[in-house]
Amino acid sequence: MSTVTEIRDALKQLPVQEAQNIAQWLQKYLERQGDTKTPSASRTRLKVPDYAARRRMILGDKVLPNMVLLGREQERW
After folding, report:
1. C-beta separation of 14 from 22 below 8 A
2. Contact at 8 Å (CB) between 40 and 34?
3. What is the C-alpha to C-alpha distance for residues 3 and 46, in angstroms, rounded to an integer?
4. Residues 15-38: what's their mean pLDDT?
């Protein structure tokens, strides 16, 4: 077996329990490979900006009107 298609076809012929065992082994193998190499993008945490805190810093406690709703009120349906 040298291609993904051949491997997929062979896995389809196995009983479900055997296919699950292979899937678990493959998952553990890939996790070990990921630990020895550079950290994957899924493991690195990105810091997401706190937009609510930024808005409060700029505007204080002001509540801005929802311009979309105001525009819809003025339109004729």
Report:
1. yes
2. yes
3. 36
4. 84
Sign of the CA dihedral running 27, 32, 35, 39: negative
35 residue type, one letter:
D
Three-state SS letters, the chain:
CCCHHHHHHHHHHCCHHHHHHHHHHHHHHHHHHHHHCCCCCCCCCCCCCCHHHHHHHHHCCCCCCCHHHHHHHHCCC
Instruction: Give the dihedral sign, CA 11/27/43/41.
Output: negative
pTM of the complete model beyond 0.70: no
